[in-house]
């Protein structure tokens, strides 16, 4: 209709790894481009777009026409990993992959590849499934609480639920933490005496449960895993098994190398076996340890899955009908482990195991505990982004009503994962998107579009952009919900990352909507907002906004009005500047709009001249 050759664009958001840099990739690349432009002005002869294209020495890595679109510029799923699942590793020790910010020399080159145009339609097969920049580790908004992906089992982290067979904590005060004392403890753990084993295992667990700087590396250096692994296979001594599992849990909560040491010692299959123990406290501790291992990354998570964690984990909840009969602390750990299982990309899980997890999550999202609900919601959001089959399983499980209910909660820690899950479902095919709309998601999304949290507003706008990438009926529901004025306001005033999503929402509507729907967008004052967005010097927003303007200029009965709005103020000057942009995806679009305006202006002049000549002829005849 408007852009028959453009690709479909229902897509997901992007993953950002932990970083102290709050700018997104596009802003960084735009800044780099401006710095290059400053350098270019100091060179003789001055560099123009034409010269950069014709001179092979100034091309960088190749012509834009022969390049592919980098994955981090494609529309893709699930904007961010939840801030509530930030890693335990200090941010100073983390960095983004080198492939994201290539260390290229500062030469005159095309600073960005052309962005894909906006398409009218898309289905499940068309969704861009691009790699996440990091496995469960990413930057979070300042207003979000940070919850660790790997959790040490310290005394502060435990829930008091009254006495139990393993809840009497025999804390030993003033245990020295020296190499000699640790070596003595490790030696004692291998004693032939059951009493000595328990005594020294409690001492080891106590030191490893310190809130600050637990001596994990010192214990590993003393070869603690050698006596500890046999203790995990203890029979007829639940207290010793519990303490040994707790100690191992905190070792697995350490650094990547420390977690690797636990896995290499053969702990995973042993822990899965311990998870089947009759004691709820021992089950909880084994699940906790496996959760820490799963949180380390794809490889370790898949090892845990291959060891058969799903069945025992599901059974530990003691589900009867729609009722969970397990103790609260165990339920919390299970919900968190499920979120870690599905957090990372490249999951190797059977359809049967995934459905078993969804069955448990359907009950967990109604559990009377906020932390259980939050972790369960994040788990669902991760499942919905794995692949098409997983997304359909989420829809078939009947979770959408519960997700939308939590999306409208007053608790933002609940809103974020519920909204992310709904957004991931909206990246699916038209039937899956209809399932979201049929459950009255739009009124809540409209409220979230004006939320004070930037991340919530961004996710809500991203979700709307995927709905406007759908059918005309879906677009009409957005129009009827009176959401367009809010989207336009976001495009004008929101932070740049949120403006980008609003630009996609507008452009998708102009590409797949009817003339009446596009006219409603014009009535919402989208044209001035798009012209203002062109001055942001943010490449993706500029490219998408130009596409939207081009489509709006083709609306019958509103064409002249849109032309006047585009040409008003500094509109033409802005377009002329963009026509010289070094990125062809922008300069070509700007030139086409200018040519369209000039052709129309020339046509009007010719009509006026013909009309004037006819009037003169009539006057002469008289």
CATH topology of the domain at 309-343 and 347-439, which one?
Leucine-rich Repeat Variant
- Please state roughly what percent of the residues sit in beta strands, choosing from under 5%, 5-15%, 15-25%, 25-35%, 35-45% or over 45%: under 5%
Spans where pLDDT lies below 50 across 5 or more residues = 1-8, 14-23, 43-148, 158-170
Helix content range: 55-70%
- The DSSP helix count reads 30
- Termini distance? 49 Å
Strand order of the largest sheet: 1-2
Alpha-beta classification:
mainly alpha
What's the CATH H-level homologous superfamily of the domain at 309-343 and 347-439? Leucine-rich Repeat Variant
What is the arithmetic mean of pLDDT?
78
Structural overview:
- With 622 residues, the protein is an all-alpha fold.
- The chain has a domain at 309-343 and 347-439: Leucine-rich Repeat Variant.
- Helix content is 57%, strand content 1%.
- It is built from 30 helices and two strands.
- Strands 1-2 form a two-stranded antiparallel ribbon.
- Helix 18 runs parallel beside helix 21 (454-467), helix 26 (526-533) packs antiparallel against helix 27 (539-552) and helix 27 packs parallel to helix 30.
- The chain is elongated.
- Residues 1-8, 14-23, 43-148 and 158-170 have low confidence and may be disordered.
